[in-house]
Design a protein that fits this description.
about 1200 residues, about 70% helix
């Protein structure tokens, strides 16, 4: 009892012992280890764990010394208990603690190993202190190897564990000795028992240090294959487990043997010598055979045999197939031909554990199929192959779904869920067969909670991914309603989610023409079960939220059938709106109801609800603000007659703080709401002229961040606002507000984007008030011509002319004015004039396009600006409008594609690319023809032009481009450096925007890509700059382009890369120039997430360049920029190190742990490391925050 009380006290953090108390406690506990009572000894050992963390270092040494001495004692009981005690002590010490003499400890352990075969504490010691025992590794190995032939199986098992820990930290010589020993012993094959042990040992080494065993697989695998054919079930199991570990830990080295491994697994997946499946197969011909199910269950007991180990072989085969399928994505088509039918045929497996692993292997196959849907790897994509096998899968699952086994049914539901996620709609023909199985589990009284939850989540996914009509013949509502009433909150929550989806199924509002199903029999049941949960206050938060969402869906889809129940339910929503915990979900539900096509009467709650919603706009919860703005927008749109001016004023008062460049999405929602208000409640906007709303909007127009959706919303708002005809908010008033700062000249706008935004707003206003157009265009022309106008005024006037000019043309005068602006001293004014000319020409191609082409030919000095105008014309004009001019434009562009000026060539290339999109059948072959040009400038222009034909959305040119992009990428072999560089840039664009174009070419392109990552000494030259010599590397740009391509390929074509070859070049990049190091650090961090096992195999080679970067010092007399660059390099390298350490077992690498120690001992590096770790953990937390 006293020992037990002492243990309780030691486990408390508050206990503090003085030196004398420590000595007494340690002495007494060590004495208790010799007690005659075994229970007291066990308690004393348990006390050692918390005690070593409470006492001082020298007391720990006393404990270790005493335990070591006891392990040499004559009494077996004392030796064993001391051994367990030492194991406990080592387990409790922190990994960095070296507070006891390991050498003394090892002397005792080695003696015990040689004499008494005890390896329990050594395995833990090797695991936790492996790096500290490095000097003892050879002797540890020599002590452990004889134990592999011990007559006691428990000793062999512990020896294998100890060797597994040893290979993680031992040196290469020790590792080679171990592998050579195992191979020679396996070749001798003295006894079946030791052969089994050696195979287990090799599998354990592969699991713990797969990156080291890879080079020996050529010798190991033939031996393991040979032993698979020996008639010994246990040995077969261990052999197949070894294959599994090779497949997972040595993906590259095992590749040549994958076919052999699959064949062995397929052979033993059906290995069941003691059971006859013939009757089973006959039963399967009937799709509904409940009687057969009962026979099937009875057969389990009839054939179960304690001596039958064949199930272990089948389980190992299923797990190994799972590993193969999970790691070899490139073999998917082959898997669907061979592995998939075999797995489906084994769904009938009689052993439950084996059956679960067969299901899991098939799930892995389906999961691997998901990304392949996008890539379209071959003519028959993997997802299409799944579709062909769906009938087989359904037939196999049909019987299993009414099994008594809960685990089997859960596997079936997981399988169906994954199948529908991979192929939405795939089960349409099979719903009548599958639904009874799902209902069976929902109604089954003996079903566990987890089974019901899995059945409901499966039903939810199936409902979401199929047409509503296929479910109408089935009675799904009663079992789901019963689950909503279940006492377990998780079942209720899942059932409410399914009910919400069922509401959409029984009355699909989005397909009114096909709505022939009579939903009335089900409405009362669905409403009653949901309202009960909606009213309850003392239920789980998740259930509350799901009940609100479900009721929102019921009112949205069935509100016209609820009658007198509707107002009461809406008032419950009002109460939930006032509750901080449920308000966000309620806002979303109200948005759904307000948008219903049934025009639900919300008047009973609007008076109270709108002011509450207005108050939410000042809450510090972004998701709530966004949802509230969406709700207010739909309410104002659909219930304009019920929304009073007072309600609108309450909302308007809350809007000014939300209009800010700091959150463009919220700003966009506010602008959309104001636009809706201007359209349906124009009078309510009379007050915004005097409020701060308009001034905030005008400020936002001047923000350089205003673009995309927010800018489009702003343009719509101004058009709606000027259309209201509100006094003091007319056309000229708004024009003055927008352009005032530019004309005032008091505060020039700092960013060019602001002028573009203002010009677009001016154009939007002018389009809404066409009568004002001519006068405004005239004013802008005067501003451009006026010699006293500032550059800012000219810039705005030209951009505005570009936006509105093609609608209100003042033809001849306008051409002259813009051409004169080409002579401005300001580059920005010239650029605006170029844009204006192109934009105006779009509105009148017959007049302006020949003029622009003539100017390009006749004005060489203005050529660059005029080409920009032409680019604007080609980009913005309609295809039909441009077609008559294509030949003339094409001829002109070709004259300039050999220009020595790179900037001009780039504009020409963009024009050529965009022009090709107009008539790809004719122009793409022409482009291809110019690849044979003798001019390197022409070749580079043509390859760059191809880049501008590629975009991230489907285009008519795509199939044509796919057929000939290989010819354009052959320029990667071009003798000219610049041509090769632009070819890489084009390749990068294709890999990023449309990977399907280049996936099938990677085998031929990658060698050339990798070739460009090498540093070429012939491209490095020295330039004399006064008294200094400066080194210039002409190959840096092309290397940078090559590494950028590699980074892109990681995201888009990972499954087509040989990761180990890829890592070779990443490794070289880690030692390259600053820019390339930064790129390769990013790649390393990405690879750590995408292919951790491959990176782990190369870890030792990757650590050294990282260490070199972190420890490099800049010369004391260097410029400030050099210090900043080195700091940034260190930070990037540290980010890569932090990413590498997220790989399981990375810190077990001796080089990595040594580098970690180096980081910890350097205050500067330690501070950077801690900051990055903190940032990455907080980023992970943010990504988990779904609000």
């Amino acid at each position: 009892m006293a020992t037990n009380d002492l243990m309780s006290e030691l486990q408390k953090d508050s206990i503090k012992l003085d030196d004398d108390s420590e000595r007494k406690v340690v002495k007494m506990i060590l004495k208790l280890l010799e007690d005659k009572n075994g229970e007291v000894q066990n308690l004393a050992v348990k006390c050692l764990g918390p005690l070593v963390s409470k006492v001082k270092e020298y007391q720990v040494e006393t404990i270790v010394d005493t335990l070591c001495t006891n392990m040499l004692a004559d009494k077996e009981q004392l030796r064993d208990i001391s051994s367990i005690g030492l194991k406990t002590v080592i387990g409790e010490l922190p990994p960095v603690c070296v507070c006891f003499p390991l050498s003394d400890c090892w002397c005792v352990l080695s003696y015990r190993l040689r004499t008494l075969h005890n390896t329990a504490n050594l395995s833990l010691s090797s695991n936790r202190q492996g790096g500290l025992l490095v000097n003892f590794h050879p002797s540890i190995l020599s002590c452990l190897l004889p134990q592999l032939t011990s007559p006691r199986l428990a000793v062999r098992k512990r020896t294998i564990i100890a060797l597994g820990h040893l290979v993680m930290s031992c040196g290469n010589l020790v590792f080679v000795d171990l592998i050579e020993h195992l191979l020679s012993e396996l070749s001798r094959n003295d006894s079946m028992s030791t052969t089994r042990t050696y195979i287990q040992c090799i599998a354990a080494i592969s699991r713990q240090a797969g990156h080291r065993i890879g080079e020996y697989l050529e010798k190991i695998i033939p031996l393991v294959v040979k032993f698979c054919n020996i008639d010994d079930d246990e040995l077969r199991e261990y052999c197949i487990q070894a294959f599994e570990s090779f497949v997972r830990r040595c993906p590259k080295e095992v590749y040549p043997h994958v076919g052999t491994v699959i064949n062995i697994c397929l052979k033993y997946l059906t290995y069941d010598p003691n059971y006859n499946y013939d009757d089973e197969d006959e039963d399967e011909n009937a799709m509904d055979a409940d009687g057969a199910d009962e026979d099937y269950q009875g057969s389990d007991d009839e054939y179960s045999d304690d001596d039958d180990m064949s199930w272990k072989v089948r389980r190992a085969a299923a797990k190994c197939l799972d590993a193969v399928v999970s790691t070899r994505h490139e073999m998917l088509p082959e898997f669907y031909r061979t592995v998939s039918p075999a797995l489906i045929a084994r769904f009938k497996e009689r052993e439950e554990n084996v059956k679960a692993d067969v299901f899991h292997a098939y799930l892995s196959l389906l999961k691997q199929t998901r990304p392949a849907q996008i890539s379209g790897m071959s003519d028959i994509s993997p997802s299409h192959r799944v579709l062909l096998q769906v009938p087989m899968i359904v037939k196999a699952l049909h019987k299993q779904m009414k099994e008594k086994s809960v685990k089997t049914r859960q596997c079936c539901f997981n399988m169906l869920t994954e199948l529908v996620n991979v192929l939405p709609g795939a089960l349409t023909q099979h719903i009548p067969v599958l639904v009874p199985g799902i209902i069976f589990s929902l109604n089954d009284k003996s079903s566990s909670s987890n089974l019901k939850i899995d059945a409901l989540s499966c039903l939810y996914v199936v409902l979401c991914n199929h047409q509503p009509q296929v479910f109408h013949p089935h009675a799904l509502v009663p079992p789901v309603v019963a689950c909503v009433g279940d006492p377990f909150y998780k079942i209720t929550s899942e059932a409410l989610l399914v009910s919400q989806q069922l509401v959409k199924v029984i009355r699909p509002l989005d397909q009114p023409e096909r709505d022939t199903f009579d939903a009335s029999p089900y409405i009362t049941d669905l409403f009653t079960c949901t309202i009960k949960r909606l009213k309850a206050a003392d239920i789980d938060q998740e259930v509350k939220e799901r009940a609100i969402s479900c009721m929102g869906q019921i009112i949205c889809n069935l509100g016209d059938s609820l009658g007198d129940d509707l107002p009461g339910t809406l008032h419950i929503f009002l109460e939930r709106l006032k509750n901080e915990i449920t308000r966000l979900t309620t806002v979303k539900a109200l948005t759904l109801i307000a948008g219903s096509t049934l025009k639900i009467d919300l008047r009973p709650i609007l008076d109270e609800a709108v002011p509450i919603l207005a108050s939410f706009l000042r809450k510090n919860q972004r998701a709530l603000k966004l949802s509230t703005l969406a709700a207010l927008d739909i309410l104002v749109k659909n219930y304009s007659d019920s929304v009073t001016p007072a309600m609108i004023d309450a909302v308007l008062a809350e809007l000014p703080p939300l209009i800010s460049e700091s959150d463009m999405h919220v700003s966009q929602m506010v602008i959309s709401f104001l636009t809706t208000l201007a359209r349906v409640h124009p009078l309510s906007l009379a007050k915004i002229g005097g409020s701060s709303i308009l001034s905030e909007l005008i400020s936002l127009v001047r923000s350089p961040l205003l673009q995309g959706g927010a800018l489009s919303a702003m343009l719509e708002f101004f058009q709606a606002l000027v259309g209201t005809g509100t006094s003091s908010l007319g056309y000229m008033d708004l024009l003055r507000m927008l352009t005032g700062p530019v004309y005032a000249q008091s505060a020039a706008l700092t960013h060019k984007q602001s002028y573009y935004s203002i010009a677009k707003c001016v154009a939007a206003l002018t389009r809404a008030c066409p009568d004002e157009g001519p006068a405004v265009v005239g004013q802008f022309i005067q501003d451009v011509k006026n010699s006293r106008s500032t550059d800012s005024i000219r810039l705005l006037a030209l951009l505005s002319l570009g936006e509105v000019g093609h609608t209100f043309l003042n033809k001849q005068k306008l051409k002259t004015v813009i051409l004169d602006a080409f002579s401005s001293s300001s580059e920005e004014v010239k650029s605006a004039a170029s844009y204006a000319l192109g934009s105006i020409a779009v509105g009148n191609l017959p007049e302006y396009l020949p003029f622009v082409l003539g100017e390009i030919s006749g004005q060489p000095k203005r050529q660059y600006l005029l080409l920009h105008s032409l680019k604007e014309i080609i980009s913005s004009a309609s295809v039909t409008g441009l077609k008559p001019y294509v030949e003339g434009v094409w001829t002109l562009l070709l004259k300039h594609c050999e220009c020595a000026e790179e900037g001009t060539r780039n504009v020409v290339a963009e024009c050529l690319g965009k022009l090709t999109l107009i008539d790809p059948e004719t122009l793409l072959p022409r482009l291809k023809g110019y690849l044979l040009s003798g001019s390197s400038y022409a070749r580079s222009s043509v390859v760059t032009a191809v880049k501008f034909t590629i975009s991230d959305h489907p285009q008519t040119i795509d199939p044509l481009l796919k057929n000939c992009i290989g010819d354009f990428l052959k320029t990667l072999e071009d003798p000219d450096l610049n041509v090769r560089r632009v070819a890489l840039v084009t390749f990068n664009s294709a890999a990023h925007n449309k990977p399907s174009l280049i996936r099938d070419l990677l085998d031929t392109v990658l060698p050339h890509l990798y070739n460009e990552t090498k540093v070429r000494k012939e491209l490095i030259r020295e330039v004399e700059m006064g008294p200094f010599k400066h080194t210039v590397d002409d190959g840096l740009d092309i290397r940078k382009a090559a590494f950028e391509c590699m980074y892109t390929l990681l995201d888009s074509c990972l499954d087509r890369l040989d990761i180990f070859e890829f890592l070779n070049h990443v490794e070289d990049g880690l030692k390259d120039h600053y820019d390339i190091k930064m790129l390769t650090f990013l790649m390393l961090a990405r690879l750590s997430t995408l292919c951790p096992s491959a990176v782990l195999q190369r870890l030792d080679r990757l650590v050294e360049p990282l260490r070199a970067t972190c420890t490099t010092k800049v010369k004391a007399n260097s410029v400030k920029q050099e210090f900043e660059k080195q700091d940034e390099l260190k930070r990037s390298a540290m980010r890569a190190v932090v990413a590498l350490l997220t790989i399981p077992e990375a810190e077990k690498s001796p080089l990595m742990s040594e580098f970690q120690s180096q980081i910890s001992s350097n205050p500067e590096l330690a501070a950077i490391f801690e900051n990055i770790q903190r940032d990455s953990s907080s980023a992970n937390m943010e990504s988990m925050d779904t609000s």
